[in-house]
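go over this record:
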Amino acid sequence: MDQNLLRSYFATVYELPTDSGVVRASLDGEIVKDQEGLPSILQRSFAILTAYNPRSMLLPRRVNDVRHQVMRDLLILGCYRVEHCVGFEEEPEGVWREPAWVVHGIERDESIDFGRTFRQNTIVYCQNARPELIVTDPTCDEIGKTFQGNWRVRQ
């Protein structure tokens, strides 16, 4: 995988919904020794999935919105709890923002299948407070190849 693309994936900030408000986090943190210090959402098993811009190809908003809604409907039909989140560049000049879904309790292999089906380069999967970036497009790297991250809570 291209190292610049990998760095940008790790630096992406996700706004994740919680009962007490939004938690902003990225995967580029230091190793967390005390997982209890993390917000509770980051301690659970979930995936962050999107259907926007397959293989990094910019599609019209209308097409992206329809694809994203289809993904949500399929996840809900699979009996998953799905919540809206967004990923974005935190850099002041950054303009990229992409809607995504937080899918609670989905199995790792099934989340990879969703990423592959919707032609995403990667997905984010978290288990036991450890996030990983997983390749889901064979043109980027071997499907299932994992890049381990660490949560970094942003203010």
